[in-house]
Amino acid sequence: VRLVESGGGLAQSGGSLRLSCSVSGLTFSNYVMKWYRQAPGKEREFVASISPADDSIYYSDSVKGRFTVSRNNVRYQLYLQMNSLKPEDTAMYYCAATLSSTYWGQGTQVTVSS
Known about the structure:
Layout: E1 2-6, E2 9-12, E3 17-24, E4 32-38, E5 45-50, E6 57-59, E7 67-72, E8 77-82, E9 91-98, E10 102-104, E11 108-113
Parallel strand pairs: 2-11
Antiparallel strand pairs: 1-3, 3-8, 4-5, 4-9, 5-6, 7-8, 9-10, 9-11
């Protein structure tokens, strides 16, 4: 199983970034997909999740209304559109695939300057 995040980088406050997560080695359409983030010195925190059929989507309060999670079950891709970025969004962002087990990617760094 392999999850590879991409799309991170440096953005200005108020800007946008789109993260992607490419998945292989599992049946993507069976898995709940999630985004987490971890800032330096802090615990990893939940950002967003999306069910296999897109019918259940959840966001943390800190990103609700600014971030949008989506998936493409044909391309085995997970996305996170991040708008109105804030310096407090600076973190390493991880995608995760959850069914009976959870698989993690290595993360992509997002840095938001004020």
